[in-house]
Amino acid sequence: MRLLLTEDDAALAQSLIERFRDQGYEVVHVGDGIAGLREATSQDFDAIIVDRMLPGMDGLELVKAVRLRKATPIIYLTTMSGIDDRVRGLEAGGDDYLIKPFAFEELLARIRVMTRRQAPGAARLFAGSIELDLVQRTVTRRGQPIELLPQEFRLLEYLVRNADRTVTRRMLLENVWDIHFDPHTSVVESHISRLRARLNAHCDIDAIHTVRGTGYRLLAAN
Asked: Among positive and negative, which fits the CA dihedral 206, 210, 211, 217?
């Protein structure tokens, strides 16, 4: 498994490189945001680790730029521990957020979760014309492939698993983003909007129904 580590703290970076390599990972390390963007968009990685405070280009802008071209799972490493900081990072396209100082074992576990592949026995999910391949992490609707970012895939997976049930905004925050508070931002709404647009690109039937004042429901007959 290949990781891109974008971290300007040389001592921390070297420690992480050694420990990841002990676990069998290949690690490419860069120390600034501009180099991170170059590597992230020119090579294929299984996951990207990004410090929020980087020289050249900060981590938030790096992630936004990567997301325009890549769906690689991304985790932030940062001392910026505020709720607003975490929400901004997730809204920019990050998949997870770990506060410094941290235990290497937790970082390793989070990366494994981001990149895990489901067992073949539960390899596919269906809801009407929508099909999810949980092994390849791909989506089709009426046979047409749909490109999703990792967080959009998790959102759709949760909706499909709860097809024809109304799921609330709080349920989505807790089960898709692992946020157990109300951040008072539009992170759910913006992701639903993008997901809806992608699902409806080649179909005139809206698969996601907004339940006013409550939440959303993915229609099994779509």
From this structure: positive
